[in-house]
What does this fold into?
Amino acid sequence: MNKKKIYVTGVTGFIGSKIAETCVKNKFNVIGISRKSSKEVKEIKKKLGIKILKNDLLDKKKLFLEGAETIVHCATANDLISKNFDLGMNLSIMGTKKILEAAIKAKIKNFIFISTAQVYGTELNGIINEKSKLNCQTQYSLNHYFGEELCKMYSKKFGIKVVVLRPSNIYGLPLFKTVDRSSLVPMCFVKSGFKSKSIDILSSGKQMRNFVSCDQLSNSVLDILKNFPSRIFTIINIGSNWCSSIKEIAKLTRNSFEKKKLKIKLKILSKKPDKSNHFSYESIYFKYKDHKKICRNYMIKTIDSLIDRKKI
It folds into this structure.
């Protein structure tokens, strides 16, 4: 029996590498696409045994793909790249255009675009599902919104089936130590704990977030690959059944340090916001599987692993 072939862009990144790992474990023939030709590429080739095409989605070099079932496009502008407006927009629009056109030429019929829940706003309130009003408030969210719209246009014009995934706050243990996403919670707290023996929250920490692990996202992608929606264009929110405040995650991080006999201070440096935002991140099309207690315990396990990795 032939394995289903898929391409994963941004395969050396935080999200792309985890999706590739999950798909390899589930007997997919994964081909990665990366602009890098460095240590990360060698590591992922060795760990997963996959082929990787070197191609920068922002240069003029043509991208030629063979026939496959699906492309999972993870090489969109993250929060750091998005600080540079031109670079973020180029990657989200021109980079996505390049991969879409390569898919059409190769007659690849399915396309998954990894977007973000931030297209609904930065401080969510009420019930948020796929029919909720959009409210882009940052360059990061705008990058993804324009990428979504480009995908929608191509799906209607060329008949390629597109699924846009809007994950909430992603966290996890990177597949490799060389993958640095220390701007994300809880990784930023672990980094701060080791660097200054203190976790400093610049706000009140009352902001609520819906945390979804990279593993949960990868398993959701796997479910979609196995049963791709029949609609030409589908938007799916990917989250969890667990919401937590930033302050609670900081406390969990401090507790993990203390379990390992490492003394860390926790400083709350502002009284703003003075109230928490309350919301439920839901999907009309997709069921979130894990109970909130399981999600919370997995967060603790992730923090423990991040500290152990940093200590080595």
